[in-house]
């Protein structure tokens, strides 16, 4: 990446299947625009979320992690 | 080989010569612990210490070592093909290494380099490019037992030069051609110096109080030792942690793993330890050394029976005493071997 | 001096699904460099580390015989991450092979003898290699009677069906293939390997037995051989243990002082009787 | 709800070891709140962007080891 | 100290000869100075080997996990709290356990003692009521015991066992005068960049031997996350991200359970101060949920509980 290019972060988004994933779906259907920086990982429930996932995401080089129930 | 004298006020000049074309390492005091670090002058190095906290084996067998790299792209002409990492580019000198640790490298040579197939180039390359200047122990610790496992506080095995501290000067014994080249220009020792060194050696040997007896271990069959009842007690308090194996100068087990990051990939080896249940676990779920007892027994059997059986009587222990000092539950190898020998 | 940790690059030439449960696939591998192919000199019973960059290595017995040419055959059960990845690979993909490793069946020392081969499940791989080697015109004349006993759970789990059918039809060997239970469309033998071995009753005179299979099969086959008067040094077995380096250093596959990867995987029963059962 | 306690402790711990607070976000969004989703994505992206590329906890295998 | 040791031996002999328990788990004298080790006495004769001193740094609660039969455990405050933890986590039944309670004198950090004699070899350490007499090659010195306590002992709040079936010696005062809140979470006062550097500095010598995990009575998972292979959560290398992953997650798994017994630091062959991480968690759990682990049988562990009004300012 060149120095001048605007920094475009990579964000791992852990979304609950029943809540935020549905919201993401609805946002898509409703044609709501949002930044393309998130990579969505669907989890069955926020209760499935483990700190291991968050650290693994950072280890793999993401710039931020977002967990949403 | 020649016996020379290295005056203590000439140490800096000697060290300057050593680090001209090579990387020079020596034991230093860091945060109250004795460890290895690069040095350039004599006062940076330690000359009066018992031994380094950890063994110096990671100079030849780093805890994490990249073996090969590859381009992680299937379909690219060079993709997925492993390329070995380049060899060490600068020779090294390890100054003030203890004779027990040097001896350990010779034991490991027998394991890392056996024949054309079992020929660890990573180990060999570093061994061949490293000169070992030993410092004889005049004051062995209470946990040292080198003389009872075929080593010696003034031992020369595996060293290129042995220094003996005579008070105001060192007696420098060249032991190999490499060593001769380093000390050849120093003034020759007088008969009295050698006699004094011999006295110090005798005194040092005399200070080693505890030890192990190996005669019955040697004569007993593998299965007799394996089935001996002592293991039920030895294993009881063991935590199955890796302390004893990681601090040990002769433990050499490792694991090989692949790692990828985007288009880069590497194959890397890490120290591994027989105390871990994962170490021998099969893909099917079967584990040949499934219990704590199996694993504790493996470590002692490996060092004191399996290695001697396979390597012409050489013992996989040099008596440095590190595991005795560092084991979190004080499992004392001397007691274990003496129980094996009982 | 060659760095023996670096695998030879090979490409996958052909993939074949072997069993009905699709857990076993065979891979024919072709060396990318012809000098590597000539350096890879092996004999039946040896194994190699299959290397998949990014995943790791697995030790697998060589199922092809050197008499079949330069390409190598491996039959792999899908269990861990490396074998699962391999099962997803296709013809043309690049991977690596490191070896040949370990010792081999003592076939040259057994010249002039009768040979009994007992195989169970997918442990038949190195014995396929052995059979092809023995039945090759250059070698067949050196041996007496050859008996091949092979069993699997169901007909669909039998490997190399075409090959053993051909051996059967050639009349060069006595081939007894069995499945555990009656199955539709199966007209061959039914019963466990130890039972079939007892029925075939191979004679111990001037013979050796090569046994390879799951521990439970070996456990029950041994008494059959004992009963028939076989001596421990006539019974030869191949072990499997977890391995990494494959060259007798890394410390995990040892059974007592012997490293399965280097001193084995082939041991006589006489040797194993003196070793801990850490396999 | 149990997760909330876990997240609270973890978030504090990661901040404590020097991971900037803005790198780790939590939110509750119901499946009907598409607009909140849109806004939160934007807010999270802004926060992370302001911090620049991550410096810690990254494993770089290209380094010599 | 020796009087207490004698009483422990007597109690153990009595329990074993009466057949009340199958084993007494206590400490025996180590083969090197300042190191007592976990000892298992099965017979009244073996009970003779039990000892008690200020070098009993292992947490014996560890050895009760998955151990069949009836056992007696020599327990000071922290060990008893871990026993309570294990009972609350259903690892064994209270009835199978006989607690031989002892007031903890405060255990001594052998590294602190050694640090006072750099490069010298200590050959013997003799216990005196308020002092330690340290002997070595060519030196002899008397140290004030309190100056060389393990840091966790200095800030201990529970020196007496919380459960005991038999108390050896007197119930002593609680605490050693240190204030945990003053020393816990030492990196809190730093800015983020410094915190990360401090953690790297703290962990730089880690050799990944996992002695801290293995010495900890909280760590009894059949498969630890560092050993999981598919997927592998934590690489095995010495890379700082791998080392940090291990320590952060290990600390996190102690949340609401750590009794600050210090067994991890005492076990570490490299002298790593991993309590700098766990003390933060211990402090948070107290601040957020008002909980101290292992103080009461039947208490619900905070991480398996929630209240509607739990803090959630951090959630958008």
Report on this structure.
The complex is a heteropentamer of chains A (about 70), B (about 350), C (about 280), D (about 60) and E (about 325). Chain A has about 70 residues and is α/β, with parallel strands linked by helices. Chain A contains two helices and three strands. Chain C folds into two domains: about 10-100, Elongation Factor Tu (Ef-tu), domain 3 (Beta Barrel); about 115-240, Rossmann fold (3-Layer(aba) Sandwich), CATH 3.40.50.80. A seven-stranded mixed beta sheet of chain C has the order 10-9-8-7-11-12-15, with helices on both faces. Chain C has a six-stranded antiparallel beta sheet with strand order 4-3-6-1-2-5. Chain C has a two-stranded antiparallel ribbon with strand order 13-14. The model of chain C has no long low-confidence stretch (mean pLDDT about 90). With about 60 residues, chain D is mainly alpha-helical. Chain D has one domain (about 1-50). Helices cover about 50% and strands about 5% of the residues of chain D. Chain E is an alpha/beta fold. Chain E folds into two domains: about 1-110 and about 150-305, no CATH class; about 110-150, no CATH class. Helix content of chain E is about 30%, strand content about 15%. Chain E contains ten helices and nine strands. In chain E, a hairpin with a 3-residue loop joins strand 6 and strand 7 (about 130-135). At the A-D interface, helix 1, helix 2 and strand 3 of A face helix 1, strand 1 and helix 2 of D.
Name the descriptors.
heteropentamer, B: 342 residues, alpha/beta, four-stranded antiparallel β-sheet, globular, D: 65 residues, mainly alpha
Structural topology:
The complex is a heteropentamer of chains A (69), B (342), C (279), D (65) and E (316).
Chain B: E1 3-7, H1 11-18, E2 23-30, E3 33-38, E4 64-71, E5 83-84, E6 92-97, H2 99-112, H3 121-128, E7 130-135, E8 161-165, E9 169-174, H4 177-183, H5 191-207, H6 215-219, H7 222-226, H8 231-234, H9 243-247, E10 254-261, E11 264-271, H10 292-310, H11 322-326, H12 333-341
Parallel strand pairs in B: 2-6, 6-7, 7-8
Antiparallel strand pairs in B: 1-9, 2-3, 4-5, 4-11, 8-9, 10-11
Chain C: E1 8-17, E2 24-31, H1 34-39, E3 47-52, E4 56-61, E5 72-77, H2 81-87, E6 94-101, E7 114-120, H3 125-135, H4 137-140, E8 146-152, H5 161-170, E9 174-179, E10 189-190, H6 193-200, E11 207-212, H7 215-227, E12 235-238, E13 254-255, E14 258-259, E15 266-268, H8 269-273
Parallel strand pairs in C: 7-8, 7-11, 8-9, 9-10, 11-12
Antiparallel strand pairs in C: 1-2, 1-6, 2-5, 3-4, 3-6, 12-15, 13-14
Helix pairs in contact in C: 6-7
Chain D: H1 2-16, E1 24-27, H2 34-51
